[in-house]
């Protein structure tokens, strides 16, 4: 999940009887499955929650370019390098679609960027982990993008039109990302013992952070009831996490790799895997800014923004000059 | 941040598409950069053969509240549809 710990103000959703007529009409539209569009009336809480969630998602796409970008110059073959470049380019595009969807809610992209750079806005915890070997690029595509798809497929039906349409586009491209990642893992696992060991090591380090992407357990996530009533969120964190585990464990088995969880066991009764306890202390530390790469990631973003200021201004000054020339020529 | 780049709406006509469809928006300092960016962002996978960009500020949209008065009159004029008229079979296709 690329947006984590997005809080709505309400502790519990209000019933239709408690709502004023405008809010009630809004909720009834959502219940009937009608999309909400930018010009429609919406409760302030709905607007705010969506701005937070969509912008956090957008920030994640932008910051997410850094861990993978780390291996572009060191990709082992030209083909792998070209694929990785295309993937990172897609991620920039996803950030762009999402910022535009957020902007239909009345914020500007520059405001959102400012919130990211000042540390006020969050991005997905997963991008605070380092990419130490080439196999990490495979693990990210397979696990991280796989977890993202698990979350984004239902979001294609989310109640806010621009967000749901952005997700439809994103999901198509995300599928390319996941497959290219798994393809890297397959090659490594069919390769030399050293290559296979590298793949196993990457799985060991990315497995738990990937499970954390779905956010805190349902018992802890007190604010999700309102998001679910508004159909901004369609499945609970634990539901999606379970689905991810069930889908991913056989994929690991196919590779001949071991999932780093001694408590992982098939549960015939529930028709899914039981898995071990997530290290929530680590999760909350990373969210708070104390993960392995939080500082490095933000420093890279801030540096790019500050060093690029003269260029952004230059382009704007040039555009204004050209526009003025055209005006004078027309006069 | 001295001045914000304006927002542009992007329309793309697909390979075999008859008309341009709205595909999204982006920020760019001018129209030329908007086209360049739209090409990179919205046509990476054969999506189209022609791009239009329009400054978002130049678009006026109808408001959802006007839906009734704007579109209702056409619903009440059923005779605008050819299927409204019964033509005897003997007349043949028309």
From TrEMBL, chain A:
Entries under NCBIfam families matching the protein: PA_CoA_Oxy1
SUPFAM superfamilies, sorted: Ferritin-like (SSF47240)
Domain of life the protein comes from: Bacteria
InterPro entries in the cross-refs: Aromatic_CoA_ox/epox, Ferritin-like, Ferritin-like_SF, PaaA, PaaA_PaaC
Protein name: Phenylacetate-CoA oxygenase subunit PaaA
GO terms, biological process: phenylacetate catabolic process
Molecular function in Gene Ontology: phenylacetyl-CoA 1,2-epoxidase activity
Pfam families: PaaA_PaaC
From TrEMBL, chain B:
Record-linked Pfam families: PaaB
InterPro entries named among the record's database cross-references: PaaB (IPR009359), PaaB_sf (IPR038693)
NCBIfam families in alphabetical order: PA_CoA_Oxy2 (TIGR02157)
Protein name: Phenylacetate-CoA oxygenase subunit PaaB
Taxonomic source organism: Thalassobaculum fulvum
